Amino acid sequence: ISGAAFSKEFTKTSEADASMDALLLEGRAPLVAGAYQFTPTGVSQFKAADRVAVYAEVYDPMYSAEPKEGDPKMALVMQMRFLDAKTLEVKQDTGAVAVDNFVHPGSPVVPVGLRLPLETLKPGSYRMELKAMDSKGNFAVRTADFEIL
């Protein structure tokens, strides 16, 4: 799993928009997951009222082959846990969230964008734990620290 990129600006886009953006940015691909393009914020301090998402890419080689008829359905889930940055006590856990809709058949890279539930957390310092797990039990975890003012 890649590093997590926080975004306060995420907008609906089409594949044509994303392709055009990639050309305009001279090889720097935009961060697109599903129907949304994410613009990294570069900051990690947010207000509880802010709309914030996280973008990450999951690499899973089992997605590189085109699925064949009769193959078992592969599943990919993400879990976000929000820990108190000092005590590491779990403050919130999203549980497993299916992200199969982000899979592009034949590509081992799965771009994922998820909204952070800041409105349910109290002001303070947090560590977000982002975990990706496939149907074979393989998993990877990344963390990112942020603060709610």
Per-chain topology:
Layout: E1 5-12, H1 15-24, E2 31-33, E3 36-40, E4 45-46, E5 53-59, E6 76-84, E7 90-93, E8 97-98, E9 109-115, E10 124-134, E11 139-148
Parallel strand pairs: 4-11
Antiparallel strand pairs: 1-3, 1-5, 2-3, 5-9, 6-7, 6-8, 6-10, 10-11
Structural write-up:
This protein has 149 residues and is mainly beta. The protein is 7% helix and 46% strand. The chain is built from one helix and eleven strands; from the N terminus they run E-H-E-E-E-E-E-E-E-E-E-E. Strands 4, 6, 7, 8, 10 and 11 form a six-stranded mixed β-sheet that branches. Strands 2-3-1-5-9 form a five-stranded antiparallel β-sheet, with no helix packed on it. Strand 6 and strand 7 form a beta hairpin. The protein starts with a strand and ends with a strand.
Labels describing this entry:
7% helix; 149 residues; mainly beta; globular; 1 helix
Number of strands: 11
Radius of gyration: 16 Å
pLDDT average, as an integer? 87
Strand count, sense and closure of the main sheet? 6 strands, mixed
What separation lies between the terminal Cα atoms? 28 Å
Shape: globular
Question: What proportion of the residues form beta strands (DSSP E)?
Answer: over 45%
Poorly predicted regions are: none
* Alpha-beta classification: mainly beta
**Helicity level:** under 10%
How many helices does DSSP assign?
1
The SSE order reads EHEEEEEEEEEE
